[in-house]
Structures are given as C-alpha cells and as structure tokens.
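Exercise: predict the structure of this protein bound to flavin-adenine dinucleotide.
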Amino acid sequence: MIVVGAGLAGLRCAQSLNISGFKVAVLEKSDEVGGRLRSRRVDGYVIDEGFQLVNPSYPELVATGALDTLDLRAFEAAVEFHHAGRVRVLADPRHAPLETLKSLGQWPVTSLARLGVLMASTQLASASRIAVREDLTTLEGLRRAGLNEDMIDAVMRPFLRGALLDDELTTSWAFSQLLLKSFGRGRPSTHPDGIGAIAHALAARSRASIQLNADVTRVEAHAVTVNGERIECAAVVVATDADDAARLTNVPHINWQRQLCWWWSTPTTSASARLHIDLDDAVTTSALDLSAVAPERAPTGMSLIATPSNSGTTLDEVRARESVARLYGLATSDVALVTVTEVARALPHVAPPFRARRDNTVDGVILAGDYLTSSSIQGALVSGRRAATSVRQSLRG
Ligand SMILES: Cc1cc2nc3c(=O)[nH]c(=O)nc-3n(C[C@H](O)[C@H](O)[C@H](O)COP(=O)(O)OP(=O)(O)OC[C@H]3O[C@@H](n4cnc5c(N)ncnc54)[C@H](O)[C@@H]3O)c2cc1C
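Solution:
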C-alpha cells in the first residue's frame, strides 16, 4: 500500500490502514513530515510555517491518540477588540464567567442578545443538520441570523476573517457555523515545539514506513513512479494538497485562501493569553502572544507575538509593527521582526454550498486531503480515515 504525502491526511490514512493490518509506505517529497503543519527555529524563536492553532476537541484528532503524548497549551476563551484607545472583551461564558459579566456592559444589549442566540443555536444544532441546510455566504448567513452591520463589522468580521483567511466572508456559512461550533467545544491551543509537533506525534503513532525526499511524479491505480523508479503496489492513495493532486490525477483545480504572518520579538509582555484584534488598522487580522502559554517558544525574557494577515504584503510591515506596539502597550522600538511567513496555498476556499464529503476516487486512485472534506486539521484527518476505508473496500470488491 502506498500513500503519497505525509501531511495529516496521509499520516491518518497510514495509521488507519496499519491498524487494519496493512503494510504501508508513505512517500513524502519534502524533507519533513507535516505538510502545511510545520515549524522551525529562527534565532531561538519557534515559528510555525503560517500562523495556525489547533482545537484539541477536534474529534478526529482525539481519535488518532496523538493527543496522549502532546503537551498542548490552551489560550483564553476570550477576544480583546481594541478601538480608539478602548478595549472591549468578548468571552465564552462557560470558560470565563467573570470576564463575561465584566464585558456585558460594554456592548449594546440587543446586539449581544442576537449574538448569544446565534452562538447558542449553533452549539445546539447537530453538525449533520448544519451541513444539510440551504447554504449561503458567511456574510449573508450573519445578516440572516439578525446581526446588524455594526455587530458584523465590529465583532464577527474581524474575528472570522482570521479563522477563514477570508476578508470578504464569502466562505460557506455552514462551514463557518461548524467552525464556531468547534470553538464552543474546546480552546484554541499551540505547542511549545510549534504546531508541527502534532504531525510528528501522528507520524509516530501511524507506525508507517515514511520515506522523505521522495517526489512522486506519476500515479496509477496500482503503481507510483518515484525518483524515476516505478513501484507496484495493491493500492495508491494520493494525500497531497489539491494542486499537487491535480498534477498527478484528473481532479479539478480549486481556489485558495492565502496567509501572510509577521512574527515579532518583544520584551516579555504582561498581556493575557487571548486574541487581540486591532479595529483601528485592519492590516493584521489579529495578534497573539504565543509565549503567554508557551514561553519555550521565545528566549528567556522575550515574547513571540504573531500577527497574521490575509491581504497584507511585506510592504505593510511598518503598519503591522505599529499595531503590535499599540495592542500591547509597547514602544515600536521594542517590537523587532523575527521573520515573515507567506503561504499562498493555505486553505482551500470553501464556497457555498458546503459539501462535507466529496468523491475520493479517480481512475482507480484513492484521494485524501482537506480539500475533499473541510479546510482544517479535523477535515484533513477525516479525509485520511475515509481514504483508508475506500482502500479496504476496493480490495474487498
Ligand atoms: C497558514 C495556515 C493556517 C491554518 N490555520 C488552521 C487553523 O488554525 N486550524 C485548523 O484546523 N487548520 C488550519 N489550517 C489548515 C490545516 O493546516 C490543513 O487543512 C491541513 O494541514 C492539511 O493537511 P493535508 O494532509 O490535507 O495536506 P498537506 O498538509 O498539504 O499535505 C500534503 C503533503 O503531500 C506532500 N506532497 C505533495 N506532492 C507530493 C508528491 N508529488 N510526492 C510526494 N509527496 C508530495 C507535501 O509535501 C505535503 O507534505 C491552516 C493552514 C495554513 C497553511
């Protein structure tokens, strides 16, 4: 059995096949496992290859067993909105009841009530019910939920644009609701060794033989060509991203959401471990002090702050630095750039109507990858398990 690609989808597929007793080889073209989930060290700071957080309540991540060995660190379930020198806080009442009480007077009552109803109904609806409803764009969905333009522009757009990597909120409303539902179940987290630690933990759990620097140039139903050599096998799973899959098979191309992220070094801040959103300059979608929960990610006495952006360019660095200084009460001279990460193919754009399950077989080759399910760690893992099921079915039938 050959799996092409050692991202989360490929690793989960390999793990699932291994549990069923199949011998699996994973061929990965780069020099490390993880795909879009990778981290590296820069001058003593642990930088992720693109800003991302993990929700430890993702059911498929729990099912891998990888969480047992992972020291994930959770952020606060609260967001600070900064505008004209004022700070408004929105907190999850179940995780931060005091913060919620304090924040109630800061928002218009009717807006808060509508937001509360939206959040509660999202939590109560089952995932399958959300997925089968008539779908809209996220912007239309928020309007239909009764949120006025002020609440959308001051709260939901700034919050969701960072999670969806979509400034215009054209993403499927069903997908956004599933995301909001997952935020309600668990707190976004990171790892002291970077987000890539999740992929390494899963690779260890998969027990597959993983060959790095193995660039697959051709796939057939029962063979792959790698580094010029054709290898036959019982089944082939292509677990690459959508563009690489389109190069190897007949799957169609998709649209991508990009992300650029500035990674800043500052003297240790006294800031809490919550997301900060700067409403005075939308050049960044948010700012987060990663070292507030994982001090290992910065040298002693320093903090590591990430500020992602969907539409920013490297030319916006000055504005991003000023934003960090404003949000954390620092002088701009205290905010030094560690590095910039730019990921053009970050998330497959999930347009309405949302389809949680797409065909995963083309010309006898089985596919896995987040573009077949949903653009997330959970989606990638689910697609890997489904591909393993398809392999078992193809061998039986
Ligand atoms: C910037 C950014 C922010 C994100 N934020 C979040 C977030 O906050 N929460 C969340 O849940 N998800 C987030 N995601 C999404 C999540 O990281 C992805 O959905 C998931 O990692 C995709 O995994 P995958 O296995 O489908 O694909 P990939 O990770 O792309 O893996 C594909 C693998 O295939 C390999 N490959 C490709 N071609 C070949 C070939 N010819 N031969 C051999 N190997 C090949 C690649 O090198 C790669 O290792 C984010 C992603 C990015 C990039």
